[in-house]
Write a structure and sequence with these properties.
The structure holds two protein chains of two kinds.
Chain A: E1 2-7, H1 13-37, H2 42-51, H3 57-82, H4 90-107, H5 116-142, H6 146-166, H7 200-218, H8 220-230, H9 232-238, H10 242-269, H11 280-290, H12 295-319, H13 324-345, E2 346-351, H14 353-356, E3 360-361
Antiparallel strand pairs in A: 1-2
Chain B: E1 22-31, E2 34-44, E3 49-54, H1 60-67, E4 75-80, E5 83-86, H2 90-96, E6 98-101, H3 113-120, H4 127-140, H5 156-168, E7 174-178, H6 186-201, E8 205-209, H7 213-219, E9 222-227, E10 230-235, H8 242-250, E11 268-277, E12 287-295, E13 299-303, H9 310-318, E14 329-331, E15 334-335, H10 341-346, E16 349-352, H11 367-375, E17 382-383, E18 386-387, H12 389-402, H13 419-431, E19 437-441, H14 449-464, E20 468-472, H15 476-482, E21 485-490, E22 493-494, E23 498-499, H16 505-512, H17 517-520, H18 526-532
Helix pairs in contact in B: 3-5, 11-12, 11-13, 12-13, 13-14
The chains are: A mainly alpha, B alpha/beta.
Keywords (chain A): Cell membrane, Membrane, Transmembrane, Transmembrane helix
Subcellular location (chain A): Cell membrane
Main location (chain A): membrane
Chain lengths: ~375, ~525
Amino acid sequence: MRLKVEPRRQVSKPLQYATPPLSVLGTVVAAFVLFAIMGYDPLRALYDLFVAPLGNVQGLSELALKASPLVMIGVGLAAGFRANVWNIGAEGQLMMGAIAGGGVALAFYGREGWWILPLMSLAAVAGGMAWAAVPAFLKTRFGVSEILVSLMLTYVAEQFLSYLVLGPWKDPEGMNFPQSRMFSDSALLPVLFDGTRVHAGVLVSLLVVVVAWVVMSRSILGFEIRTVGLAPAAARYAGFSQTRVVWLTLLATGGLAGLAGLFEVAGPIGQLIPKITPGYGFTAIIVAFLGRLHPLGILLAGLVMALSYIGADQAQVDMGLPNAATGLVQAMLLFFLLASDFLVRYRVRLVRPAATSEPAPAQKATA
Amino acid sequence: MEGNLSQTTLTAGHTAGTDERLDLRGITKRFPGVVANADVSLAIRPGEIHALLGENGAGKSTLVKIIYGILQPDEGEVRWNGTPMIIPNPHAARALGIGMVFQHFSLFEAMTVLENVAIGLDSPEKPSKLAERIRGVSAAYGLPLDPLRDVHTLSVGERQRIEIVRCLLLEPKLLIMDEPTSVLTPQEVGRLFETLRKLAAEGCSILYISHKLAEIKALCDRATILRGGRVVGGCDPKVETASSMASLMLGAQIKPLARRATTALGPSRLVVGGLDLPADTPHGIGLRGISLDVRAGEILGIAGVAGNGQNELFLALSGERTVETPGTIMIDNTRVGHLGAERRRALGLCAVPEERNGHAAVPEFSLVDNAVLSGHRREKLLAGGLIRAGRALDFATRIIKSFDVRTPGPGAAASSLSGGNLQKFIVGREILQKPGVLVVSQPTWGVDAGAASAIHAALLSLTSEGSAIVVISQDLDELLAISDRIAVINVGVLSAARPTASVSLEELGLLMGGMHEADVAKAASPEREMADAP
């Protein structure tokens, strides 16, 4: 007896769309069992994780706040993934964007003016793009895997940020804490609703979703990206340049990640600190796949993942659930998603080698 | 063609009897929305070479897959030597003594012949012993093969020998050959036929699947003809004419091509002079000093055995690979050597690659998207970077209508079309763009006779509008039928083009086999030709 994996003849379309909700359900069930084993009240933990944050304005506004960078980066990553460009270093691009944009804020420290925020945004986009340009150049020029380069550059960015806030950019009045000055008012994102931390960046991420949707589904550029990903030879035949698509998708993702980074430091944080992200750049990879690489799906997926962040905080405060629970829940979600995707495309069969690999006389056999 | 092949019982169709090696009775196989085989009966005797004829989509592949254990019939019975059998998988089929040589080989290029054969065996064997057996079988059946050669150094004909030897090692009682000659030179075809006849003389049954009616006439004892999943008749191919078999297969008389009298040719539209292009992969073929000149209203045929630089030539002409010297390739007196595919398309050069899936079309895309793929520029399907959905739909619909593409609609995925229908769509897509120069590779490979003649007619009518066409094909009959002049490509070198009327099949075959024009007269022995093969 052995297990055999074989491709399904017909891949069910509805099922493909059903896998994200199914994997959320799977995660809930598995988390229930896990929390029970760990000795926590599983129902209460799940309530804290997935329901409690939705019950009040505070929770909802935090949801929007945390979903915004995930969605923005996820949309960019998805465009790349469609073209088989595997940028997994959005985290580093996010930090470089925050550094570049934050640098502008610090350079104009104490100055007021409407132009400071746009300038910071431009710098942030440029910073993220510059960081993404490295894997793009190495891939298109020397065929180096963008997966490794983009990932490793994340650690470089992390060290660079630490160096800045511990050294040259350290707040002179900051009691030697590793952090920059607080940004001036002109360098901070306007808050949309009083009493919450929801800032203008949330609107930008919604705009990004709409633009990405139009570009990916209606424009020749999106067509190009999809063609390069599905059939590189057909793309060359059509005259689409793979090099161009690699550059474009990496730069777009880098720019969006950089902007998302800026929105963190110019939004809820208000200064540069060594750790400006709880891993948004990596979580956005899950968001992109959970959202089926479609901008609207990514919007929903971003909200779900944001919920897991906020819910874990809630559970930590409420019942002392370890913080690692966030990572656990997110990882389970990705696992269930990949597993159910696999099962939609393939089926697993139990086969008995002895019984099936010999030709057998039919039942009516006279022999 | 003598010996045991002179059987007299040539009655067509199914005859009951216990001396049949394979006896299919009332085989029916349904797929969602289509009946691939309906009540198909077929009997093959020991030592018989039996042809299975039919258009694409007639159900040949399904039937063969049932015999080889890849598919299970919904109804009907498979009898092997008189005993009803269930053949659950290919392993079981091989255990019974059924061998199959597929149209597309499954070989690992970087491995030796021996390693490739060893991988395909159901029970492992000692390499030294296996090498000895390979040598034995290849000597016995006239299939020269060195077990220690790397596969990537072998010609297509030699690769096919590996597949055949792999089957013969199992001492098959029934050998299924799926379109075996599509990649061979006429000389190689001759050698293959000798091997098959020898096998048959030893009592091995052969099920021979082919579109090439002349081959079936030359080789086969009986033919079963499928149309729309049903057996529409059987015949003795030696008695029938090729065209009578074709009409049985198609269900209607096919129109002979109305080859127009060569009219006065216009000016040169595509000129290539001294094109050199290095190989871009370790096992690729570099182009050396390619020169050609195609005039308005003319079809230039390029013959050659697969893997002699046809792909590279196609890519160099379509603009998917460029050269640094612009003047090497000229479209209507414009230097385009350095321009990519899209710029060349704008100048009037359209192209149809050999590979439909993933090159000429994106299988996952709808037909509308596939129309956009190459038509977005010339058909003005874009506005401000956005795709004009209405115009794209119109264009796709026009292709479907004009070229009789059978599909549920323009929204259907390209992968849902049969090979012939997709090919009609692709050829139609390029022709409707009214190209000044059209480069077509293998326009009718794996396409049924009806679709093939429609494609040929479309190409001919395009020339009458003043286009210049280059057809790269391994099908000599096709080239002889439609080209005005023919050149042969061998190891990246293109021979001078000659008027079709003045070349003989034998001459072309020798050129394709690597003989230089001076050697052609000497008509070298097949051994020599084999040793020289790239």
